[in-house]
């Protein structure tokens, strides 16, 4: 990661890229920067768990830092309990619950982890700064 683009006050933050590959990382990052994506989810046992108030550097598909987000809320719920409002805040596709379910079945399926009753960490965040 090239830290020269990162302001000094953010250099100690943890970093991550959305998705499971460079194209998806760039697509989801673009949604964040445009203000459409203000939520994300992951399996409850992933190592990048977050807490409200924590800030993260978001990387693009090449691993370059592009922005900082701050977690505002973390809840845990089963896949089949995710509601339409959260799906809309994830900002993907047509922002519907049907689209969200299909896209996330595919995403977690690629990882070999999908179950209708799988527990998810559902995180809401705000954009702090774009580099």
Number of helices: 3
Number of strands: 5
Say what oligomer this is. single chain
Largest sheet: 5 strands, mixed
Shape type = globular
Mean pLDDT: 94
The proportion of strand residues reads 25-35%
Query: Which strand order spans the largest sheet, edge to edge or round the barrel?
Result: 1-3-4-5-2
Distance N to C terminus: 13 Å
List segments where confidence is low: pLDDT < 50 over at least 5 consecutive residues: none
The radius of gyration over CA amounts to: 14 Å
**Helices and strands: which structural class?**
alpha+beta
SSE run = EHEEEHHE
Helix fraction?
25-40%
Please give the structural blueprint.
Blueprint: E1 14-16, H1 22-33, E2 39-43, E3 55-59, E4 65-78, H2 84-90, H3 97-110, E5 119-130
Parallel strand pairs: 1-3
Antiparallel strand pairs: 2-5, 3-4, 4-5
Helix pairs in contact: 2-3
């Amino acid at each position: 990661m090239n830290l020269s683009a990162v302001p000094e006050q953010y250099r100690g933050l943890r970093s991550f890229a959305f998705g499971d590959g460079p194209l998806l990382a760039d697509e989801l990052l673009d949604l964040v920067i445009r203000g459409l994506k203000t939520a994300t989810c992951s399996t409850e046992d992933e190592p990048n768990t977050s807490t409200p108030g924590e800030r993260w550097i978001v990387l693009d598909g090449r691993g370059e830092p592009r922005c900082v987000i701050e977690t505002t809320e973390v809840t845990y719920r089963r896949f089949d309990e995710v509601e339409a409002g959260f799906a809309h805040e994830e900002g993907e596709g047509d922002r519907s619950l049907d689209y969200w379910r299909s896209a996330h079945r595919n995403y977690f399926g690629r990882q070999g982890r999908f179950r209708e009753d799988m527990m998810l960490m559902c995180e809401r965040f705000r954009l702090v700064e774009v580099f």
